[in-house]
């Protein structure tokens, strides 16, 4: 089977919800979104905003990060959609890491070493989704 260019390079967007100013991983797959932007006193310069296009940003006090999910659904086009929080990212590697009782991997902070350790980059993310329709945690 011959893969199309789109299959070789799928459009992957992992929307990172943020209600506080933060530094975000670089890459095309990681898309920071300021949630509750309609009600915010400050507009972040390094994110998209959930009050643009079709949105429910003003409802953020009731729906929290779901306003980013709604915004992405109505305004973005991707082959793969993902959602996470600005301080909580996925591990896109096959490397086992120590987990707490809730299945979380705890690290002191997110720096370049942590980004590399957990595969938070376009290539690792593309490898993780290759051949799958849905990615989720193990049961």
Automatic annotation (TrEMBL):
Stored InterPro entries: DUF4422
Keyword Transferase belongs to the record: yes
Residue ranges of every copy of the DUF4422 domain listed in the record: 13-136
Alphabetized GO MF terms: transferase activity
UniProt KW keywords: Transferase
Pfam families linked: DUF4422
Protein name: Glycosyltransferase
Annotated organism of origin: human gut metagenome
């Amino acid at each position: 089977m011959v893969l199309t260019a789109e299959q070789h390079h799928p459009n992957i967007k992992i929307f990172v919800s943020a209600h506080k100013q933060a530094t975000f991983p670089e890459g095309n797959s990681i898309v920071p979104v300021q949630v509750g932007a309609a009600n915010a006193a400050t507009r972040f310069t390094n994110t998209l905003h959930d009050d643009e296009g079709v949105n429910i940003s003003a409802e953020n006090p009731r729906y929290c990060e779901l306003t980013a999910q709604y915004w992405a659904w109505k305004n973005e086009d991707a082959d793969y959609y993902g959602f996470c929080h600005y301080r909580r990212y996925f591990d896109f590697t096959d490397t086992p890491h120590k987990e707490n009782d809730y299945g979380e991997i705890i690290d002191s902070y997110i720096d370049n070493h942590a980004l590399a350790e957990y595969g938070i980059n376009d290539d690792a993310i593309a490898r993780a989704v290759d051949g799958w329709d849905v990615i989720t945690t193990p049961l």
